[in-house]
Design brief:
Layout: H1 15-36, H2 41-68, H3 74-97, H4 104-129, H5 132-147
Bound molecules: fe (ii) ion (FE2).
């Protein structure tokens, strides 16, 4: 099975976010095919940069939704996004300096980071966004915890 394929298990229930996740994975799949077919770094550079900027835009979208909902995971999720963007720009810098290091496996590695984020960090975060009662319960629990100090 294609490790970068969209799976039913990634559905969060928030259609706009699921569409963005799907689009990001599709971009990575296209990049990987192009590179596997022999495309060089300079031939896919604009696609790579577009993928990076879409990722950034998508993270901002999630952060905006989280901020509006006063989401209890906002700070930790934003930190996870910053870490992921740092990893991605590390890979981009690496292949910019050494274009021959850009292989289908490079794209797989980026895809795996993105997929891990979706599975382990987005899904629990999005669960709260799509379940207002649970979100309210956790917000109340946070306030109670704050009152202890
Ligand atoms: Fe996220």
């Amino acid at each position: 099975m294609d490790g970068l394929a969209w799976q039913a298990a990634f559905v969060s229930g928030l259609a706009e976010i699921d569409q963005e996740h799907q689009a990001l994975l599709a971009m990575l799949q296209q990049l990987r095919s192009a590179i596997a077919a022999g495309a060089t770094f300079s031939q896919v550079k604009s696609q790579l940069l577009a993928c990076a900027s879409e990722t950034q835009r998508h993270f901002q979208h999630e952060e905006t939704l989280m901020a509006a909902a006063n989401h209890p995971l906002y700070l930790s999720h934003r930190a996870a996004h910053q870490n992921l963007l740092r990893d991605l720009s590390g890979v981009l810098e690496e292949v910019q300096e050494h274009p021959t290091k850009l292989t289908p496996e490079t794209i797989e590695a980026i895809g795996n980071l993105v997929l891990r984020h979706i599975r382990e960090e987005d899904l629990p975060m999005l669960y709260l966004l799509t379940h207002p009662e649970e979100l309210a319960r956790q917000q109340a629990a946070e306030l109670t915890a704050e009152n202890v100090f």
